[in-house]
Amino acid sequence: MKFQKWQGTGNDFIFVYDPEAALQLSQKEIAMLCHRRFGIGADGFIAWQLKDGVPFMKYYNSDGRESTMCGNGGRCFAAYSVYNELAVADIPFHFHAVDGPHEAYILKDAEGLYRVELKMSDVKTPEKNGEDTIIDTGSPHYVVPGDSVFLERESIAEPARAIRNSDRFRAEGINVNFVHADAEGNLHMRTYERGVEDETYSCGTGVTAAALAFYPVLKKEHVYVRTPGGNLEVRFKPSGTGFEDVWLIGPAALVFEGSL
């Protein structure tokens, strides 16, 4: 099996080209490929497929289970498509994922790095739980506002798991984000992802969730977000039913390629 490893702000993925959906891997096999000791190592596994002639992103979490939309995975999917001559830079690229159609603009710089603007699905009005926010940006997220001191702690796993494994979310799981807004209105955040069951360097749908959840506070429709893996941007428009014209913006890069 030939593969490529891509990362977007430290969120890393194994990619395989499988246009006819012929590759049949079990949950256990995908989990092994994503294992950082016994496999290639990744936060997720993505198959590039075609459905009715349209590129389709088939996404699996590192536990081997097929999952919901992955924002950084979608950005890497677009960059992968340009790198492998399945799409053209500077021209809108359209593909589908489990949550529906997406559009991307891919820019390539002189050093061969990619900047990807990915249009996300429209988002319904979030649910408030005290100061916290529950929001679905293609994947379900729980956003907890906090201070900069909390974000500097060694691990967020324990408080995140308490939320992820609570009675309401135990069965399906939820991604947990701890977010701090600085004096300039920029966000700093860390994310615990279900399916990975640990903190990741970055989460695209989580960054999107944080920007939208903080809109009532910041009143900004273009938000800069810093994650442990790098910087991303979110651009959107509030609507009567939530948010629309939502874009996730940031870098994507090829790490290596090989065969297994």
Low-confidence stretches are none
CATH top level assignment of the largest domain: Alpha Beta
> In the CATH hierarchy, what is the superfamily of the largest domain?
Diaminopimelate Epimerase, Chain A, domain 1
Count, helices:
6
Distance between the termini: 5 Å
Query: By helix and strand content, what is the structural category?
Result: alpha+beta
Radius of gyration: 17 Å
Instruction: Tell me the domain tally.
Output: 2
The CATH topology of the largest domain corresponds to: Diaminopimelate Epimerase, Chain A, domain 1
Average pLDDT score:
96
CATH architectural designation of the largest domain: Roll
The major pleated sheet works out as: 17 strands, mixed
Task: Kindly state the percentage of residues in helix.
Answer: 10-25%
User: Could you spell the SSE succession in H and E letters?
Assistant: EEHEEHEEEEEEEHHEEEHHEEE
Number of strands: 17
Described by the principal axes of the CA atoms, the overall outline is globular
**Beta-strand percentage range:** over 45%
